[in-house]
Specification:
The chain has about 60 residues and is an all-alpha fold. About 70% of the residues lie in helices and about 0% in strands. It is built from two helices and no strands.
């Protein structure tokens, strides 16, 4: 599962970019910006869930 997540985090921004070579005005975020945001949000969620599971497993028993 970790390998799949790693591949998605690396490949998604590269697949979302399409550059025509012509500079233009920015009226809204590009698809690559949205893909980077989604990858960052997924990465934060994934790491936090793994850390929660790790500390839940190693919690002292009362």
């Amino acid at each position: 599962m970790f390998r799949i997540a790693l591949v998605l985090l690396i490949a998604t921004p590269a697949l979302a970019t399409a550059h025509s070579g012509v500079a233009g005005s920015r009226s809204m975020p590009e698809l690559s910006d949205l893909a980077l945001f989604a990858c960052a949000a997924f990465g934060i969620w994934f790491v936090r869930s793994r850390l929660r599971a790790r500390f839940r497993r190693n919690a002292p028993k009362d």
